Amino acid sequence: MKFPSMAEAAGRTLGDEEVAAAERVIRSGMLNSVWGTEARLLEAEIARMYGVRHAISCSSGTAALHLSVVAAAPDPGDEIITTPITDFGTVAPILAQNAVPVFADVDPADGNLDPAAVASLIGPRTRAIMAVHLFGAPARIDELRALADAHGLALIEDCAQAWLTELPDPPAPEDQPAADGLPAADGAPLAGGTPRLAGTVGDVGCLSLQQWKHITCGDGGVVLTDDDERARRMRLFADKGWDRVAGRSHASFGLNYRMTELQAAVARAQLAKLPGVVGARRRTAALLLDALKDVPGVRLPRPDGHAWWLFPLVLPGGGAPELAADLAAAGIPARAGYLAEPLNRAPVWAAPVYGSSRYPLEGYRPAACPEAERLVAETLVIIDWNERYTTEHVEAVAREIARSLPRP
């Protein structure tokens, strides 16, 4: 059985709408978003979908994360706490701003940041917390929000894998007990009673439109914020610090992270399909969860709010590499660990950063993250997921998992 892949047309929702969007831009003669309309329309549509004041388009998800670090405004040598289970695009922007990544351990159930581990690492140089909603599962963002507020830190949400991930409504502050020494969280649903979405609780949320994400324009990113000043700084940085109102005047340091009109037009066509993409993934994921509910030795992901970029399985007793190999041999698109090693163990930390300089990492050695390291090495299996999966695909995955796991 062939499984649709996001690397091919059969596993994407690209079609006539995207072709028409690209043709519209090409025939207009204006492919640059400074003078075009598509990027500004995309920003307005995403801001409305997410219920935020500002959505700022840029050239990639990594660029979006760089803008979020710019908004946090670390001084050289300041620290940003983040997760070791993520793409390097989460961490590269920290180094690009001469700040230092500090890796906190994760919840072994889903690989998302453990707020207690984050709390233990906050120090005088900490400037921000950068949370990742891993695989589309909601992180414990209200606890991280409360922690950030208590220490005067910025909170950044990396939602590259978490389009339309829904967050649980937080308990009323008076009803929410402090956990692990953390203050009670505050928060509220978006206006009109619609679900709160990942990316709307932090000071900045970051979205990706790269090839492998829920929707795509090849590469592209969007940052979300309700903060007018942060939005101003991010727009300036994404356009080389160019104050367009003042003429050819450069107000601050910046890079060229502009999204093109072609990217934006394709992204707008894709955005209209996003609810259907996430809905289809949720329907088939629910079928697999039901099929595996009685299979011993497997910890299933919590479905609440999940956007199912990937379908993760945790084997608390270990054996993930063996299960992933068995599934792959049977034609199931599965692999163990997600990363070759968690980022706190990546070889990059022994390499120079700029030229031959190690700045800002002189004497830097990332701390151990035992839960993350065990997930990657022993307990985590991820299965590619796709809006084109059918009941037959789900049945094949469930059958091979049940066949491959040892009987108790």
Automatic annotation (TrEMBL):
One of its GO terms (molecular function) is transaminase activity. InterPro entries: DegT/StrS_aminotransferase (IPR000653), PyrdxlP-dep_Trfase (IPR015424), PyrdxlP-dep_Trfase_major (IPR015421), PyrdxlP-dep_Trfase_small (IPR015422). The keyword Electron transport does not apply. Keywords: Aminotransferase, Pyridoxal phosphate, Transferase. It comes from the Bacteria. Its cofactor is pyridoxal 5'-phosphate. Residues 175-190 have a biased composition (Low complexity). Residues 167-190 are annotated as: Disordered. Pfam families: DegT_DnrJ_EryC1 (PF01041). The keyword Nuclease does not apply. Belongs to the DegT/DnrJ/EryC1 family. This is DegT/DnrJ/EryC1/StrS family aminotransferase. It comes from Nonomuraea indica.
